[in-house]
Every structure is written in structure tokens, then in C-alpha cells.
User: Which sequence fits this backbone?
DNA sequence: AATATTGTTCGTAATTTTGCGAACTAAAAT
DNA sequence: ATTTTAGTTCGCAAAATTACGAACAATATT
């Protein structure tokens, strides 16, 4: 019995879910908010904004980078982070489109 | 040694993260997209849209309900689901504000 | 050459998420 | 009084997430 599934969801829905998932933790929202308020900054400054260990901050940054929302650049011994503008705008467009869908139609059952 | 943490993140950032997390799975995006295209519908129709077992669909619906994005109403033996309009608009506003923040400022380090 | 600075990676633990089938519930239909 | 219908809840397993301290890497400074 083959229970593998194929193409369960649309690419767009998977992409939107990936962006949303990356934003699904308050630490990561805080990072994104902070980064979007600057041109860029170093790891240490981000760490200062957060109540968690540097190893954990590093992990969150990695997730944001994997989702494409931010980018990092080594400037030894520091690492400079910034918003990935292209994907940031892509994410924005995804959410906008998503919420705009059938906007006037929604009126619920009650 | 007390390692409890208090008020780590802003209420707004926690709320936005909660919305984002609820949207952080393609099945739940598909559900929301489907629901927002209708006034409302029954569990069975939602289940038909998805490639997963009904127990799993039920779980995803529970998460969306817990996040406040949808609401369910019993019409035995069926259950009617719909978007929670108030919170849906709240979520929309949260994302909009988030992405609008410093929009023109972002230009990255490169 | 040794030390300091700045982050990342590793190893680990606890918790949460995702998924399924089976059992259950509650009303409707027979 | 059974049976059917439509979902939910339970119990479980596998995988992913979150968090930390310790160890490491790579350059800069002394």
C-alpha cells in the first residue's frame, strides 16, 4: 500500500504557509520588526533586543534566512543582518493577496 | 535561581505571531482560502478539499478556531464553519501594519 | 604566541506539531 | 430500537520546534 502523497497543496499556498510559519514566533516577529526599522545591523544588537540565549537567537535567524525573509553577511568577527528586500516584498504581496481574496464576500453564517 | 521570564515580547508581537503560526501550514491556508471564498460550509466539504484524514482536518480546524480565525457552529449531525470576520480583519490589519512599517526605509546593506 | 571578541554549531532535553486509525457522540432516519 | 450520518476525541508514533550551555571557528588585539 502506497500512502505517499503528491502535490497535496498548491505551490502558492505552500509558499504563503512557509512565510507565515517563519513569522510564527514572537522572537522572529521582533527580529523582523527590528531589522525593518534599520538598514541593517549586527547579531549582537539583535541579541540585545531579545530575552533569549545567543544560540537560540542564531537558530531563529537561521529560520528567517531559510524562509528567505532576511540575509546575513559576514564581517568578521561580526555578522551583519538585513531584510531580504525582494522576498520581503514577495511575502507582503502574498499576505495582501490572501486577505484581499473575496474580501467583501465574507459575512459569516450568523 | 529563578529563570522565569516575564513580558518577553510585546502583546502585539505575540498576537501577530499567533496569527502567523495559525497560518503556518498549507492545510490551514487552504482551509482559510476555501472558507473565505464562501459564506460558510460544513466540515465534510472542507475535508473534501484536503488530502488528509478527517481527524487531522478536525485538528487543524481546532487550531484555527483557537487562534480566532474561524468559528464553528453545530447543526447536528453537521458542523458549519466560517471565517471569524472580526478577527480576520484584525489579522489583516496586523499584517498590513507589520509590512507597512518602515516600508520605504528598507534597502538592505548591499 | 596568547587572548579577546563575535557568532555559529553541537549535543541534549522538553515540548509541540502533525498525522493516522479506532473509538466515541449525538441527532436523524429507518 | 437499530442503524446511519457527520464529526470529534483518544491514543499513539514520528518529526519538528524551542531552548540552553558548552565547545568551536575566525579574525583582531595585545
Assistant:
Amino acid at each position: 500500500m502506497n500512502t505517499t502523497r503528491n502535490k497535496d497543496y498548491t505551490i502558492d499556498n505552500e509558499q504563503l504557509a512557509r512565510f507565515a510559519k517563519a513569522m510564527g514566533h514572537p522572537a522572529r516577529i521582533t527580529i523582523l520588526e527590528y531589522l525593518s526599522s534599520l538598514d541593517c545591523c549586527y547579531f549582537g544588537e539583535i541579541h540585545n533586543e531579545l530575552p533569549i540565549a545567543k544560540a537560540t537567537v542564531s537558530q531563529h535567524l537561521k529560520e528567517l534566512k531559510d524562509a528567505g525573509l532576511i540575509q546575513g553577511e559576514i564581517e568578521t568577527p561580526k555578522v551583519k543582518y538585513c531584510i531580504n528586500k525582494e522576498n520581503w516584498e514577495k511575502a507582503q504581496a502574498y499576505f495582501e493577496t490572501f486577505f484581499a481574496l473575496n474580501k467583501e464576500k465574507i459575512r459569516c453564517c450568523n
About this structure: Chain A has one domain: 12-98. Chain A touches chain B through 52 residues (CB under 8 Å). Chain A is about 55% helix and 15% strand.
